[in-house]
Write a structure and sequence with these properties.
This protein is α/β, with parallel strands linked by helices and 220 residues long. The chain has one domain (3-218): Rossmann fold (3-Layer(aba) Sandwich). It contains 6 helices and 10 strands. Strands 6-7-8-3-9-10 form a 6-stranded mixed beta sheet, sandwiched between helices. A 4-stranded antiparallel beta sheet has the order 2-1-4-5, covered by helices on one side. The chain is globular. The two termini are 22 Å apart.
Length: 220
């Protein structure tokens, strides 16, 4: 299942964030998008997710030899980022029951098992607004890893995680990244993308005169 980006560019006012991004992501596959602060990593990830429109270029998602309309991409993509909000007035179990009506969990992952995996057993009946930032981040990441989707997008996944949370994330990445397309955005924090086999540097596309076609590199 390839996800194609062809001559993707994003412009705000008169300023180009990046241009001429040409890449094909394959499934299964693990990729990291690196870049300096403000280079457009999150912007590119939002375009890949279908949540943000590109200023130029074309993107395609092919599943089982069928092209998926971009308005349907959210059904096949799970996305975790520190800036995404949860429904904070809901209790954890209530929230998971609501979420799974729209995006089921992986086969054999029940809500009870999900709560156990995230070490949130004692917070089952707690409102999400009372969670710590680390607990919220674990919840967001688990929703991405454990949803029944083809594509998982992770933006700075170790944000708000302490060392124990980072170790939990690394175990999740090792166990659940084998059969999906995983794309991670990172400020060069090794723990976030240790499992990624391919690397893309968004800084390569910041110059509007850049004609480079493909900077996917092997991490190994």
């Amino acid at each position: 299942m390839p996800l194609h980006l062809t001559n993707i560019a994003k412009k705000y006012n008169k300023n180009w964030v990046f241009r001429k991004v040409n890449i094909q992501f394959n499934t299964p596959g693990t990729y990291v998008i690196k870049g300096s602060n403000g280079s457009g990593k999150s912007t590119l990830l939002k375009i890949i997710s279908g949540h943000l429109s590109a200023s130029e270029g074309e993107q395609k998602l092919i599943i089982n030899s069928k092209e998926i309309p971009i308005e349907s991409w959210p059904e096949h993509i799970a996305y975790a980022a520190p800036y995404f909000e949860l429904i904070e007035n809901m209790y954890l179990e209530e929230f998971l029951e609501f979420y799974t009506k729209f995006k089921p969990l992986n086969k054999n992952i029940t809500i009870d098992k999900f709560i156990t995996i995230t070490y949130l057993e004692t917070s089952r009946n707690k409102q999400i607004k009372n969670f710590s930032s680390g607990m919220k981040q674990r919840l967001k990441l688990a929703l991405a890893w454990l949803s029944d989707v083809y594509v998982v997008l992770l933006d700075e996944p170790c944000s708000n995680l302490d060392q124990r949370g980072i170790e939990w994330y690394k175990k999740m990445a090792t166990k659940y990244s084998k059969d999906k397309l995983i794309i991670v955005c990172s400020n060069n924090i090794q723990e976030e993308f240790f499992f990624c086999e391919n690397s893309l540097n968004i800084d390569d596309f910041m110059d509007s005169h850049n004609s480079q076609k493909n900077t996917l590199k092997s991490q190994t």
